Every structure is written in C-alpha cells, then in structure tokens.
C-alpha cells in the first residue's frame, strides 16, 4: 500500500493510461450498470427490489474479491511481489486526483473568477453550483476534500493494509456501488439500500481514522479534536462528519449547514457553528492540511512496514 500511495502521489492515473485501458473503477461501474439495467425493475414489489439490490452487492463484491484474491495468490512473497502488489493497488487510490480537483477550485476562487470556480466545484459536489457564492464554493470544496480523504485515500489504505488486494478491491467496489445506486431518488431508494448500508459499515473505521489524522496534523489539534467529538455525530452521514468536523475545527471555519441539492434543500446542522465561513485562503490552507494528512499516512505505512520486516532483510 505504501508503494501504491507513492505511485499515486507521483503519477496519479495518467491520461495516456486512462485512454488506453480506462480505469478499474469504470470497469466495475459497467458491471453495476448492467445489473442495474436488468435487475432494477419498477414493477417489482418493494421487498423484491431490496433483495435485488442486495444481490447486486453480493455478486459484485464476490467477483471483485475473487479477482483480487487470485492476484494475491500468484504474487511472490518477496520484494518483487511487494512492488507488483503496489502497482495493482495503485489505480484504486485517489490522493493526487483529489488534490488536483480541489486545487482547480482554489485557483479561480482566489482570482475572483466565479464562473470557473462554480464549474470546478460542480465536478466534486452534488449541490447546485449556481446557488453558491464564494463562501459556499469554498465550503463545498472543503467538505468534499475532507470526506474524500477518507473515501479516496485512507479507507483504501486501511482495507488494503488489513486484507491485501481482495480487501482493497472489495472496498472500492462497495464505494462505487454506493456512488452509483445508493442515492435517494425513486429509482434507487429501495434498490440501493443494501449498497448504502454496506458502504456505511465499511467506512466506520477509516472515517474516524481520517478525522484523527486531520486532528494530528492541524495547527490547532485540541480545537479540532473537541469539534470532531462534539459535532461529527450531528452530520447526516454516519461517517463524513468525522473528517469534516476535524477539518472545520483545525482551520477555525464552519462547514456543512444548509445547502441546496438538485433534489431539494438540505437543512443540516453546522460543524463548528459560530466560526466564520471559509475563504479562498482557508481552502488553500485546507489543501496544505490535506498534504500533511497524506504524508502522515505514508509515514505510518512506512513504520508498519519496517516493524514487520526482518532486520537482516530476509523478508525481501
């Protein structure tokens, strides 16, 4: 996982590679779309639609997990296997991509180009960008940065460390299904129920770990920790509130709160209520904080590796 994180930090997922073979998440997405097309039937009884959605979760995770287990089985247990495993894990991390997407919001926002800032933030959030002022854009981007630190970086590392390639692949499959079929529209309210619940469960440890990493790397760790413990459980998501509240406390800004989505308004409570709205400078500071989180995660991985490597190097 350390090799994968280093590759992702250095290269991201190169456009040339994407043009040639696409991306593993998009491969999983095609399978989910196919099952959605054939199994998500409007005429089914509610119970059967829930069962069909649960079957999608079982089929997709079974296929992906078996594929990951097969790859892990054939890898040699030496340095070559470590490097090969890192390459196979590399595309399922999104540390560099997340940074680039938020940086694309920071630059026009600091320049006062609201049209370009709204366009950039619409790539990473689901709320109506035309309803956002400068503070709203900064808040939306900061929330996306904090939440996706868990979904795109810490959670894949976590499950990859504990369960290898099968754990990593299954996690990304679950996360992909959650993003595709777990929204609250009439088509997916029942069909996506299982995907949403499973995604909530597998993100419980990584989300809290992400919040702790933000606490440890912030300039105000005690405040960040206090805000996280106080406000995270008030978030509508059982997991996203932990890194978001930690970031809000660490930067001294307020996040979450009322916002407008395509399906209607959301009246969520504030995280770190009473603090000011984020400015473009606060969003840039959030990116700097995110870099420290990723560096700390890499350091932890290195320490874990060294702790499990024989001093004579025989493990390599």
Automatic annotation (TrEMBL):
It comes from Acetobacter suratthaniensis. Pathway: Cofactor biosynthesis; adenosylcobalamin biosynthesis. Converts cobyric acid to cobinamide by the addition of aminopropanol on the F carboxylic group. This is Cobalamin biosynthesis protein CobD. The chain crosses the membrane at residues 52-75, 153-171, 293-311. The keyword Membrane applies. Keywords: Cell membrane, Cobalamin biosynthesis, Membrane, Transmembrane, Transmembrane helix. It comes from the Bacteria. The keyword Oxidoreductase does not apply. It is a multi-pass membrane protein. Its main location: membrane. It is found in: Cell membrane. Belongs to the CobD/CbiB family. It holds the Pfam family CobD_Cbib. HAMAP family: CobD_CbiB.
């Amino acid at each position: 996982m350390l090799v994968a994180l280093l590759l992702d930090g250095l290269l991201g997922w190169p456009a040339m590679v994407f043009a040639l073979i696409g991306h593993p998440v998009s491969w999983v997405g095609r399978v989910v779309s196919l099952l959605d097309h054939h199994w998500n039937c409007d005429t089914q009884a509610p119970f059967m639609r829930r069962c069909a959605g649960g079957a999608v979760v079982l089929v997709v995770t079974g296929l992906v997990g078996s594929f990951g287990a097969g790859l892990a089985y054939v890898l040699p247990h030496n340095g070559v296997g470590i490097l090969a495993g890192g390459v196979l894990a590399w595309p399922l991390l999104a540390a560099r991509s997340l940074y680039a997407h938020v940086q694309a919001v920071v630059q026009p926002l600091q320049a006062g180009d609201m049209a370009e800032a709204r366009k950039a933030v619409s790539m990473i959030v689901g709320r109506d960008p035309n309803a956002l002022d400068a503070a709203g854009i900064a808040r939306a981007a900061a929330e996306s940065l904090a939440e996706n630190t868990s979904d795109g970086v810490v959670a894949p590392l976590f499950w990859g460390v504990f369960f290898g390639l099968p754990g990593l692949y299954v996690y990304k499959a679950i996360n992909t299904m959650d993003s595709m079929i777990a929204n609250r529209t009439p088509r997916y309210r029942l069909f996506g129920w299982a995907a949403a619940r499973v995604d909530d469960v597998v993100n419980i440890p990584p989300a809290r770990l992400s919040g702790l990493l933000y606490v440890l790397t912030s300039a105000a760790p005690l405040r960040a920790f206090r805000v996280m413990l106080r406000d995270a459980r008030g978030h509508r998501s059982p997991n996203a509130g932990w890194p978001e509240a930690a970031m809000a406390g660490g930067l001294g800004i307020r996040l979450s709160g009322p916002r407008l989505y395509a399906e209607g308004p959301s009246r969520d409570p504030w995280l770190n209520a009473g603090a000011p709205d984020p400015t473009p400078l606060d969003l840039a500071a959030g990116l700097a904080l995110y870099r420290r989180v990723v560096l700390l995660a890499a350091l932890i991985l290195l320490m874990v590796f060294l702790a499990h490597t024989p001093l004579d190097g025989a493990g390599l």
